[in-house]
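Chapter review. Work through the record for DUF4300 family protein before attempting the end-of-chapter questions.
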Amino acid sequence: MSKDNIETDTAEESKPQDSDKKQELPTATYMGGSNTITEVCKELSLAGAAHVDTFKEWVTDFADSAGKNAKLKDTWADANKMKADTGKCMDGWEAKHDYSDADCRMTAFLLLDGLLHAQSVEDSYSGTYLMFDTQAIDNVDRYEIIRQNKDMFTTLYGEKSITDDKHPEKTFSDNWKKYGFQIDSDRISLISIAIYDPDSDAIFVGHTGLLIKYSDYYLFVEKIAFEQPYQATKVSNMDELLSILSLRPEYFGEEKEAGPFVYNNGDYVGTLKK
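C-alpha cells for DUF4300 family protein:
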C-alpha cells in the first residue's frame, strides 16, 4: 500500500468529521474525549476485538483523570508530532486512583482475549521484566480477565534467551512458533517491539499494540505505557508505522546494540532506526 492510495479531499476539511471521510495520513489521537473514544471503539468492535466495552471504560477513565490534567485533545493530529505531558498524566491518574494503570501489554492482551491462542505455555514466570505488569494483574480487580490467562501473558511477553547469536531478531519468531501462538482473525494482528538486553543476552516485548487492516490503510491501537496515554494511529503502510514508533527514544539502547525488532504476530517486519 502507498500514500497514493489514500484520497484527501481538502474541500471537505472544513466539514464535520464523519466515519467515511478520508483523512490525510498518518494521523493519530490520544483519545482525550468521547468523540475519538467512540470512533476507535467502533472500529475495534467491527474488526472483532474482544472486551471493547471494558477497553472503552479504561480509556474513558484515563481521559477523565490523567487526560484532563494533561489536556489531551479529542481530535486527530499529525502522527509525527504527537507529544503529551507525561508528568501531568501521571499526576492526574494518581490523584484519582490508588491502583496501577494498564500498560501496552495488558491493553493488547485484553483486546485479544479469545482471539489469541497458544498450544502450550511456560509453567511459571520467574523473570523481572514484567514485574510491574504481574503485580497489577495479581492485585487489581479490573485486570481479572488478564489474570485468568496470566501464564499465556508471561509466555508471550516475558524475556527469552537469544536463540541465534548472529540473528537475535529470530528469537521472538522462534518462540511464537515454539508455543504455537496464533490469532484467529484476518483483520487483527499483534505488533510487538522486542528490546534486546545485552547484559542478560535476552529479548523481551518492550511495547505492543493491535493493528487493524483496512483496504487502503491500517489502524494501530496502543497504550503507550503505564500512566501514559492511549493512542490510535492511522497509517498508509507498515513503513509509516515503523517510522512513527522510531520517534520514541525509550525503545533504543546503546548505539551499537541490536534492535529494537518489530514483529507482526510472529513475523519479523523490521528494526526501528533512530
